[in-house]
Amino acid sequence: MFQKLFLSFSLVLIVVGCSKNEIEEYKLAGNALGTTYHITYIGDEILNLEEKVDSLIEVINHSLSTYRENSYISHFNNNTLEDWRSEISAEEYTADLEHFGKMIKVSNVIYSHTSGAFDPSAGPLFREYSWAKKERGFLRDSVVQNCLRSQGMDKIVPLKNGEFGKLDSMLELNFNAVAKGYLVDVMANYITGQSIENVMVEVGGEMKVAGKNKLNEPWRIGINNPVEGASSTDLFKILDLENTAIATSGNYQNYYYVNDSLVGHTLDPRSGKPIINNLKSVSILNEDCAVADAYATACMVLGLDKSRRMIESDSTLSAYLIVNENGELSGEYIN
Question: What 3-state class would DSSP assign to 13?
Fold first, then answer.
């Protein structure tokens, strides 16, 4: 139904319990951003929730989906914003700019904090790498250098009318590494705004929880075992969480070989080179799922030592890291 907006893995599983004491618990599931969503909440039933969620997904897609020709981001990337203005309603104009502006704000902060390890302005580079993976080949250095010349979040500028411009017409944005988390925030904020105190919202493995589960206990969230071929029920760690968001990225699937050379799934937007390191999985916790989503992606680029130092220096972040040391997996909780 809705087009794919993301590249990262769905690595987190909800661990479900049961109880003899039945309370009012409601569940909703559907499709969003090329993956699935699941909502569980406790309290009074929210009428017409499915229709409202579908509406929220449509609004996010209309602003941020690079797979929608009429989205704001597509017109921004294609330098056709005049067409966008002529096609949309006043309500769509306001909503498109609101969500796009929030993505720019979040991205600028994390781009700076990670020294460019998280960089949504590397849209052409991500696209070229996606094509290279399909062909099981390497990115040519000339292609990489051409992409690198045009990217940089500092080349995106706010305009007086609330829109955004760019200093390089070749620059293209791609919010794949943050959109799922952002949609989680939007959904969760709507539900808690309906006087619901206990809720879990998940989109493609990224999630946000408030309050407690139906057993009146913290929500139990499982992190997949980061090994190739692991099933969704093969868990490495279970975390008890309340009033937080969590997003997980990994670097143990979707790699391939070219002439016996291993090519990793994670692309460093600073160099344009795919990387593989001993940090196999990182789960970031923050009050905002969009922030957690972006930092989880950045950590896979930064590697273990730089990720650890960054997380330890930021009181708003916590993390669970899974590392491969000499063929043995070990976990580490930070903050």
Answer: strand
Contact predicate 294/245, CB 8 Å: no
Contact 174, 26 (CB under 8 A): no
The domain that contains 103 carries what CATH number? 3.10.520.10
State pLDDT tens for residues 63-110. Answer: 999 999 999 999 999 999 999 999 999 999 999 999 999 999 999 999
Residue 34 lies in a domain: yes
Alpha-carbon distances of 265 from 99, 130, 233, 251, 274, rounded to whole Å? 28, 10, 23, 6, 7
Count of structural domains, the chain:
1
Whether 187 is covered by a domain: the verdict is yes
pTM of the model: 0.90
The residues of the chain scoring below 50 in pLDDT are 1-11, 16-21, 256, 262-263
Is residue 66 situated within a structural domain? Answer: yes
The one-character DSSP state at 222 is E
Give residue for tokens 């509406």. Answer: 55
- Taking residue 264's Cβ as centre, other Cβ atoms within 10 Å add up to 17
Residue 103 structural domain: 12-242
Q: pLDDT tens digits, residue range 17-33?
A: 444 445 799 999 999 99
| Number of separate helices (H) and strands (E) present in the chain | 9, 17
Q: What single-letter amino acid sits at 14?
A: I
